[in-house]
Design brief:
The complex is a heterodimer.
Chain A lengths: L2 E13 L4 E6 L35 E3 L3 E9 L4 E12 L7 E8 L14 E2 L10 E3 L1 E3 L13 E2 L3 E3 L1 E9 L11 E9 L1
Chain B lengths: L3 E6 L4 E3 L23 E8 L2 E6 L5 E3 L2 E3 L8 E17 L2 E17 L4 E8 L1
Antiparallel strand pairs in B: 1-2, 1-3, 3-4, 4-5, 5-6, 7-8, 8-9
Classes of the chains: A mainly beta, B mainly beta.
Chain lengths: 191, 125
């Protein structure tokens, strides 16, 4: 038996200290893990994205609610290390003109809103995992992805930092509709 | 697990990783926990009909008994330490895992006389 991995997602108003989402899907092995990573005009895991589309604005840009997802490691392992993540290592059809995907690895949660979250890394084009973002870890005994002092290694049950993404639709978009399917990649070492 | 590791300690004992990969010292840890701080002479992984080995005394590697070196044997390298980990690469469409690759990395690291860290790692899929 080795480490097992599961996705989690925080939603809702920021709460606690340090702040995290009010709703924590999958946190602590709760079993309410997210089952998709769809960018939409609502902050939750369950609503269909088709019911909450991001509408092309007449000017400027429209924003999806940011997704604050993170990983949860359980099982038996000695150490997990060298985490690295890319929100887009492959896409079935390139994002159309005016549509962009931004992301970041962070320990900072903010109440999601349909405004610019200012995530710094552009994942609109494919970013190979070798060029991805470093991911640190938090032992569950210290807290969750919001813990302010994550480490480059994990030696017990714990979490990645938030792997946050946001889709942005500019008024220049002339191809509304579903985006291509995006493949995200997470890599780490385990022994 | 595709490959299980075994090793021979400097004091002559041998260690065999079990299929469940559980530590014998601490059941919350993996088998590597039992060897990571020990003085190891030889470490190998075997599976799928093959044996991949690293000799921490002379720094040599071997595949199915065929020995080779990945460093200049005249190079002065001090105190070779085992390096072993499995590199996991998970690919997701949304939260659905569509691929999970595991690559076994093992070898040794040491410092040269200038204090530079040198690593030689074999990667097996």
């Amino acid at each position: 038996m080795a480490a097992t991995f599961a996705w989690c997602e925080d939603n809702g108003t920021q709460t606690g200290s340090p702040v995290h989402g009010t709703t924590r899907g999958g946190y602590g092995g709760s079993g309410t893990n997210p089952t998709n990573m769809n960018w939409k005009n609502i902050d939750d895991v369950s609503s269909a994205y088709s019911s909450y589309p991001i509408t092309v604005p007449p000017s400027g840009s429209a924003y999806s609610f940011p997704k604050y997802q993170y990983g949860y490691f359980t099982g038996t392992f000695t150490q997990i290390s060298s985490g690295i993540w890319s929100a887009n290592t492959a896409i079935t059809v390139a994002f159309p003109t005016g549509v962009s995907l931004k992301g970041t690895v962070t320990s900072t949660y903010a109440t999601p809103a349909a405004t610019d979250a200012s995530f710094s890394t552009d994942f609109t084009s494919v970013v190979s995992i070798g060029s991805g973002l470093a991911v640190n870890f938090v032992p569950a005994s210290s807290g969750g992805p919001e813990y302010g002092s994550p480490s480059s290694t994990l030696s017990a049950t714990g979490y990645t930092q938030y792997l946050a993404t946001q889709l942005i639709v500019a008024s220049t978009c002339t191809s509304p509709g579903d985006t291509g399917t995006v493949t995200a990649t997470l890599r780490y070492n385990e022994n | 697990m595709k490959y299980l590791f075994r090793c021979k300690f400097t004091d002559g004992r041998t260690y065999i990783q079990r299929e469940d990969d559980l530590s014998l010292k601490d059941k919350t840890k993996s088998a590597f926990y039992d060897v990571k701080d020990e003085n190891i002479d030889v470490f190998w992984i075997e599976g799928d009909g093959h044996v991949y080995l690293v000799n921490l005394i002379d720094g040599s590697f071997s595949i199915d008994g065929i020995e080779f070196f990945m460093h200049d044997r005249d190079e002065k390298l001090n105190d070779k330490k085992l390096v072993y980990y499995r590199q996991h690469t998970h690919q997701f469409n949304g939260t659905d895992e569509v691929n999970h690759e595991i690559e076994f990395h093992f070898g040794w690291q040491a410092d040269d006389d200038q204090g530079n860290n040198v690593k030689h790692i074999m990667r097996i899929k």
